[in-house]
Amino acid sequence: MKNLIIILFFMILGSYLQAQTLNESSYSERYTKQVGFNFTDFALRFLSFNEATGSTPSILVLYKKGNNGKKWRYGIGGSINWGKNPANSQTSQSVSFNFLFGREYYRNISQRWTAYYGWEVLPRVSFSKSESISFGSQEPQVNSLLTLRLGGQALVGIQYNFNERLSLLTESSYLIQFAYRKDEDSREDYSLRSFYISPISLILNYHF
């Protein structure tokens, strides 16, 4: 089963075109808060998407609050990694923290379907360091990299409400991001880029 999310987009588009009136008893309106957890890695163990590297967002927890067609969004994520290879005395460590905050505007298409669009600001910081000893050398070679990123993105998404408490959402966005990098020799690098994030991520939500 490939590109399941695109199929869902076509389903929601068809529901929207057929909808004549807004269902006021939509599940998503019964509570003003929701917290979501990144469900993508678990889902990919059972579903097959088109291969796309770097598209899964690094936000692990997504919190939303609001009603009457508007919600504030807050997210947090990150990772810590450590490794050691006794064969060449190589060690590596990395840590990253990712945040987001933004605003979304939604519409209840039916009792179970909700469509939305909005914007986000994404500050991110990461640091990595590795040490290794080359053959014939007694001094370890150290490589380190500090990266700071600040981005802004426009997003659009859909949410399927299983019931008044549980829902599943996916979204797509277009991101503009500024990055600053500094290595172990104090060499600095600046970059500005923009890219499209495909709708392959899944967020499982609890409403309260």
Outline the fold blueprint.
Blueprint lengths: L3 H15 L14 E6 L1 H4 L17 E5 L4 E16 L4 E19 L4 E20 L8 E21 L4 E18 L4 E10 L5 E5 L1
Attribute tags:
single chain; 208 residues; mainly beta; 2 helices
Briefly characterize the structure:
This protein is mainly beta and 208 residues long.
Report the structural category. mainly beta
- Tally of DSSP β-strands: 9
What is the H-and-E element order?
A: HEHEEEEEEEE
What proportion of the residues form beta strands (DSSP E)?
over 45%
Helix fraction bin: under 10%
Q: Could you report the average pLDDT, rounded to the nearest whole number?
A: 83
Oligomer: single chain
Distance between the termini: 33 Å
Radius of gyration: 21 Å
Largest pleated sheet:
8 strands, antiparallel, barrel
Describe this structure as you would to a colleague.
It contains 2 helices and 9 strands; from the N terminus they run αβαββββββββ. By secondary structure, it is mainly β. Helices cover 9% and strands 58% of the residues. It is elongated and about 70 Å long. An 8-stranded antiparallel β-barrel has the order 1-2-3-4-5-6-7-9. It has helices at 4-18, 40-43, and strands at residues 33-38, 61-65, 70-85, 90-108, 113-132, 141-161, 166-183, 188-197, 203-207.
